[in-house]
Specification:
Elements lengths: L1 H8 L6 H10 L5 E2 H7 L4 H13 L3 E7 L3 E7 L1 H19 L2
Antiparallel strand pairs: 1-3, 2-3
Helix pairs in contact: 1-5
Length: 98
């Protein structure tokens, strides 16, 4: 029961889209906004809103990459990787009891 309470404390990762973003970012160094749009079934505005929530929580950094044209990139932070890993450990613990 305590593990379930722990999961509900993290409102940021409790959202399926934000959790999916973090799971996609976890094994990657950085991802372009455009690439995330291709992976997730969300609108650009919806993705932007979720990324800003993750950025406010300190889980990701959003920045511009200048190549042939400016692009928006997203990088997972150390805090974001740690919190996501902990969230997954807690979820595994709960599922192992089912």
């Amino acid at each position: 029961m305590e593990a379930i309470r722990e999961l509900t404390k993290n409102h940021t990762l409790g959202n399926p889209i934000r959790l999916a973003i973090m799971l996609y970012l976890l094994p990657r160094e950085r991802v372009l906004f455009r690439d995330l749009l291709g992976v997730l079934d969300v609108t650009p505005g919806n993705l932007d809103s979720h990324l800003k929530t993750l950025e406010r929580a300190g889980y990701v950094e959003i920045y511009k990459v200048i190549a042939d044209r400016p692009r928006t990139a997203v990088r997972i932070t150390e805090k974001g990787a740690g919190e996501t890993a902990e969230y997954l450990r807690t979820l595994r613990e709960i599922l192992s009891r089912v």
